[in-house]
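## tool: complex_structure
## caller: assistant
## args:
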Amino acid sequence: MRLKLEIDNRTEYSKADLRRIFLAGMRQLDITHRRVLVVYSRSSSVTGWGAYYGTATNWRQQYGQHYADGRYHVKMRLPRPGRASDPARLATSIARVWEHELWHTKGRRHPAMHPELRWCHQPVPWAEGMECRHKEAKSVKPKGRSRKGERQSATAAADAAKTDPRLALALRRLEQAQAGVARWEKRLQAAQRAYARGEDANERSHWALEQGKAERHLKKYRQKLRRYERRVLELTPHEFAGVAAGGGR
Ligand SMILES: [Zn+2]
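## result:
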């Protein structure tokens, strides 16, 4: 399968490194052609936007000028070197956000995403060993103490993200809330169908009660969902920033 990838790279990150990550992600999702704009982020995180490719939406309103004419499918914002919250795992962060945005370009929206994908915590084994080098970083060659210090702080940040039990708990709760919403949506629909088919007043009143029950549970789980979305947002500011922007929900 021949892949077509057009990168408008307005950073000094290696285009070859970016290409390697982007192509690997496209292969994962069976995507053959994408145009991507890469710019610097004002924050310390990788952030992104993905257009709901092929869906009828007002592009200008939803995605801003870059998307008004459909020039780009995805916009990626990368932190400037030295500003990245987790430089050692920059390629991994890019891969995660990239995969998330690619799903948007296939029309997938947040409620239909697994929480890990939705919050860009998903494993990306296809990007293992990849890197994203920066021009300055290559020529400057920091040595000795500064380099070691950088490596240590990066490791500490990675460990903190991995071992934050509050985040792990919030993600688990979020997942439970999503499952609850899905479960009660299904039951509500079933009750509505049964009500419509109901043969007598007795049967219909039974299904009317079931509908009310399903609606109450649905409301409760939707509230939970919103609460844990906010919680995960609080606990993972750098990863989330990209996801929040992505898709322009
Ligand atoms: Zn998104």
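## assistant note: The chain is about 60% helix and 10% strand. Residues 56 and 107 are 10 Å apart (CA to CA). Handing back to user.
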